[in-house]
Write a structure and sequence with these properties.
By secondary structure, the chain is of the alpha/beta class. It is 39% helix and 17% strand. Helix 1 (26-41) links the parallel strand 2 and strand 3 (45-46). The two termini are 15 Å apart.
Length: 135
């Protein structure tokens, strides 16, 4: 007789890392908000796109070890994705907020809840299903 087996969700981070461009526009701020929401929900762990661009060794190694890397860019400039590519990395999932019909503005207060919900739903639908294992 031992400890009863429990089912534990392993979707709390680690294998799925999410990177937001966090640029200086409404769509950049949407990327950050969506990444935060994914992390707070336990669907992914938020990491640092600036750390990728800055070649910070621990952040780069985490990106290389991730099972799934999700990069969310605000616009077609795709700065976060280009930081990945500069290191020879390719995100498994890449989303551009303006491709979802959201217009870029430099008014940082123009981010709308409906826009965040749209991007969050889109990214969440692209993620692998949460993994449940018995321990």
């Amino acid at each position: 007789m031992g400890v009863p087996k429990q089912e534990e969700c392993l979707c709390g981070g680690g294998p799925i890392l999410v990177y937001a461009c966090s640029g200086g526009s409404n769509v950049g701020q949407i990327t950050n908000e969506v990444a935060k929401m994914l992390a707070m929900s336990g669907r992914a762990r938020m990491s640092c796109a600036a750390g990728i661009g800055g070649h910070v060794s621990g952040i780069v190694e985490s990106a290389r070890a991730a099972e799934t890397s999700v990069v969310i860019d605000g616009c077609h400039l795709a700065c976060a994705k280009k930081s990945f590519e500069h290191l020879g990395l390719k995100p498994a999932i890449h989303v551009v907020v303006t491709d979802l019909g959201i217009k870029k503005s430099y008014d940082l207060n123009s981010m709308q809840k409906e826009e965040v919900d749209l991007v969050l739903s889109h990214v969440a639908n692209l993620l692998p299903a949460p993994l449940k294992v018995k321990i």
